Known about the structure:
Blueprint: E1 2-3, E2 6-7, H1 10-29, H2 38-45, E3 67-69, E4 79-86, E5 90-98, H3 109-117, E6 121-122, E7 127-128, H4 133-139, E8 148-157, E9 163-173, E10 177-179, H5 184-194, H6 203-217
Parallel strand pairs: 3-10
Antiparallel strand pairs: 1-2, 4-5, 5-8, 6-7, 8-9
Amino acid sequence: MEVGGMPVNTNDKQHRAILRRIARRAMIERGLLPDFSAEALTELAGIPASAATAGEGVRDLRHLLWASIDNDDSLDLDQLTVAETMPGDQVKIFVAVADVDSIVRNGSAIDDHARHNTTSVYTAATIFPMLPDQLSTNLTSLAFDEDRPVIVIEMVIGADGSLQASDIYRAPVSAIMQSSRITASRYGWKARARCPRLLPRSADSTRICASRTGQRNA
């Protein structure tokens, strides 16, 4: 058998279908919801875009070098991180979590599904997502170079590892990198492009940063 001119092992397809049925049955047996309800899908159809990133009490943190520690092909990105050095050997750490609540109403059918399952369930044959793909991999995903609303947990850590200060607030962010391994060769050019003062300067990096800063301020 061929699909698109490529040979396909029908046994593999049959085995995967069997595994999907087993996974679905296991979800039901353990009281989890394998599918989104008709009400949840109707709600999803009424969410055309991601939430606004401006508003009262919102701090704009898009200038920071936000990075995600994920596989290169991951789309459902729900957390970003960045850190800054401070005087006295202190470090300020920012953790940004996708603000799904900005477009999913509390008590809605989508919220009820997520509350019931509490997590995405990964199996060998398929994934049962906590949120519909349109949300988790698109409208709320903290994807590269996309402005998204988040909840930020800000912490100042002392030289002895103790918590010196903390804060929680809403903010828009934009990721500069997504990788399962942060290496200098992959991280460097994106970091310099966003903020060359934090890394060795070059004429090219300064020019790119000025260009991107101008675009954001336009």
